[in-house]
Amino acid sequence: MDSRIKRRMLIIPLVYAVVGAIIGFLMIYFIEHQLINMFHAVSKVEIEVKANFPYFVYLILAFSFAIPGLKAFILNLIAVRQWRSGLSPSCPVCGFPMIQRIARRGPYIGQCFWGCYQYPKCCGKIHIG
């Protein structure tokens, strides 16, 4: 596989997912500490305060930032596997895998066609009919 295709379709979305998860966990950490600091400032009482969020809330909030990257990674992994097995053609313009799409406007509205993965950067397409 071309390293350009591998980087564009698999590595970049995975990096986005990991960075999103890290940002989510950091946001949760800082939000929890800000709540504790606000409680101390308002109550002016020095007692042990701990925000007891359930663990699954942390995971849901943290991974909500990672979901778009994970979704792109999984969809691109499927597209690359189909491309490798010969189920989807290569773009005649740039050589990237093509994705089956449905025309939304123009004379072929509602019909399927193969469109380049890099659209709108590359406008390669194959009419299926």
Gist of the model:
Helices cover 54% and strands 10% of the residues. With 129 residues, the protein is mainly alpha-helical.
Instruction: Tell the overall outline.
Output: elongated
Mean pLDDT: 77
* Secondary structure tally, helices: 3
Q: SS-based structural class?
A: mainly alpha
Q: List low-confidence stretches.
A: none
What is the β-strand count? 3
- Rounded radius of gyration (Å): 23 Å
Question: Quick one: biggest sheet?
Answer: 3 strands, antiparallel
Distance between the termini: 29 Å
H-E order? HHHEEE
Helix content: 40-55%
In terms of DSSP E residues, the strand content is 5-15%
Q: Number of domains in the coordinates?
A: 2
Descriptive account of the structure:
By secondary structure, the chain is mainly alpha-helical. It has two domains: 1-87; 89-129, no CATH class. It has three helices and three strands. The protein has helices at 3-43, 55-64, 67-85, and strands spanning 98-102, 112-116, 125-127. The protein has a three-stranded antiparallel beta sheet, with no helix packed on it. The longest helix is centred in the first third of the chain and has 41 residues, at 3-43. The relative contact order is 0.14. Keywords: Membrane, Transmembrane, Transmembrane helix. The chain crosses the membrane at residues 12-31, 55-78.
